């Protein structure tokens, strides 16, 4: 990672895109404040990445849990220069008549409310930091519909709206806010989703037909785009919604 932020708070840092972002930061000599609900996985990553990876387990859906973890990490690291919201859950629930209220709430709570709560807790620590930046992780399904994913599409579209609102609100403070919209990415979440026969039946042909580039993508390639958005090369970029979907939404 060759960007300006020196200390980066990453949610969902124990696996998938969040882990790829954390690895990129640590490899570049930056410190990572890592949040994830999976304490065991966080501890394993901390052992591998060393002292620059400082972890606190938290449920991003729980306001008290998030605030406590962010406060602990800020105290240990001296605040943050950037926030990357990667925490998420997969969203295949069937159509709206098949999606239970509990499933709907869970998908929105983790993917959308979690980004809001982490931002709410972290932003006071970003104020006054040169080059401060936030990157949210949305999805191609925040921009297009997906059969059987009504809650996930709604949540990820909400992340795009949150990004734009925060960009307007916090530009006067010098804080840039952008989001990336990955397509199919080789993460544990995608592999769990693909294990479902219903998802596989509905999605295999769509992935093959919609992705113009090889799919699924390496999470490190998504981290590369996040790296750019955090850094000085993106100093004039805020409120942007950046597809990293192999051309899924191009046509």
Strand order of the largest sheet: 3-2-1-4-5-6-7
How many β strands by DSSP? Answer: 7
Low-confidence stretches: none
Order of helices and strands: EHEHEHEHEHEHHHE
Q: Structural class, from secondary structure content?
A: alpha/beta
The total of helices stands at: 8
Mean pLDDT: 91
Main beta sheet strand tally, sense and closure: 7 strands, parallel
Terminal Cα span:
32 Å
Residue share in helix:
40-55%
Question: What is the percentage of strand-forming residues?
Answer: 5-15%
Oligomer: single chain
Rg over CA atoms: 17 Å
Shape: globular
Give your account of this protein's structure:
This protein has 251 residues and is α/β, with parallel strands linked by helices. Helix content is 47%, strand content 14%. The chain has 8 helices and 7 strands, in the order E-H-E-H-E-H-E-H-E-H-E-H-H-H-E. Strands 3-2-1-4-5-6-7 form a 7-stranded parallel sheet, sandwiched between helices. Helix 4 (101-126) links the parallel strand 4 and strand 5 (133-137). Helix 1 (16-27) packs across helix 8 (219-230) and helix 4 runs parallel beside helix 5 (150-170). The protein is globular and about 45 Å long. The two termini are 32 Å apart. The mean pLDDT is 91. InterPro entries: NAD(P)-bd_dom_sf, Sc_DH/Rdtase_CS, SDR_DHRS6-like, SDR_fam. Belongs to the short-chain dehydrogenases/reductases (SDR) family. Keywords: Oxidoreductase. Pfam families: adh_short_C2. This is Short-chain dehydrogenase.
């Amino acid at each position: 990672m060759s960007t300006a932020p020196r200390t980066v708070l990453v949610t969902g840092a124990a696996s998938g895109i969040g882990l790829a972002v954390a690895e990129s930061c640590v490899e570049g000599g930056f410190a990572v404040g890592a949040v994830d609900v999976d304490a065991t996985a966080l501890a394993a990553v901390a052992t591998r990445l060393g002292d620059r990876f400082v972890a606190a387990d938290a449920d991003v859906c729980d306001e008290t849990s998030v605030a406590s973890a962010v406060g602990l990490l800020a105290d240990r690291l001296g605040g943050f220069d950037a926030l990357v919201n990667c925490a998420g859950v997969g969203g295949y629930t069937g159509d709206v008549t098949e999606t239970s209220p509990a499933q709907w709430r869970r998908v929105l709570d983790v993917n959308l409310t979690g980004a809001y709560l982490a931002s709410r807790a972290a932003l006071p620590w970003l104020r006054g930091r040169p080059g401060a930046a936030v990157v949210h992780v949305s999805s191609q399904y925040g921009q297009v519909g997906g059969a059987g994913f009504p809650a996930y599409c709604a949540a990820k579209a909400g992340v795009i709206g949150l990004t734009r609102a925060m960009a307007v609100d916090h530009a006067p403070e010098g804080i840039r806010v952008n989001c990336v919209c990955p397509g199919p990415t080789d993460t544990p979440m995608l592999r769990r989703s693909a294990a479902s026969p219903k998802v596989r039946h509905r999605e295999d042909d769509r992935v093959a037909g919609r992705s113009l580039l090889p799919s699924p993508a390496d999470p490190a390639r998504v981290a590369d785009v996040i790296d750019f958005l955090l850094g000085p090369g993106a100093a004039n970029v805020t409120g942007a919604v950046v597809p990293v979907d192999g051309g899924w939404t191009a046509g």
